[in-house]
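hiii so um. not sure if this is the right channel but i have a protein structure encoded as tokens and i wanna go backwards to a sequence. like what aa goes where. can anyone help
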């Protein structure tokens, strides 16, 4: 499972609209409204790099209201919870 975080700047009047559009896309696990340099953080969980590339460049990039994005790809998870196991249920 590939995890990525897409950090987004969004036009002020479009934050809720963009968040709703993102969360309804296949591969977008969560969308967080955040304070600070960015407006939204989308958590992506997909099976292949190709799926990630397609989601970011062909779908997320074309959402009206997004003014800037930065994508971070996760290498390892350090956690007290085994989230990877939870998300892999039924994926055999």
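sure thing!! here u go:
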């Amino acid at each position: 499972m590939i995890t990525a975080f897409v950090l987004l700047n969004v036009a002020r009047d479009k934050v809720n609209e963009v968040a709703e559009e993102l969360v309804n896309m296949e591969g977008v696990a969560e969308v967080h409204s955040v304070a600070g340099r960015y407006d939204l953080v989308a958590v992506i969980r997909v099976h292949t790099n190709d799926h990630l590339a397609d989601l970011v460049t062909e779908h997320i990039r074309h959402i009206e209201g997004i003014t800037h994005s930065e994508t971070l790809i996760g290498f390892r998870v350090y956690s007290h919870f085994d989230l990877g196991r939870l998300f892999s249920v039924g994926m055999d």
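oh and The radius of gyration is 13 Å.
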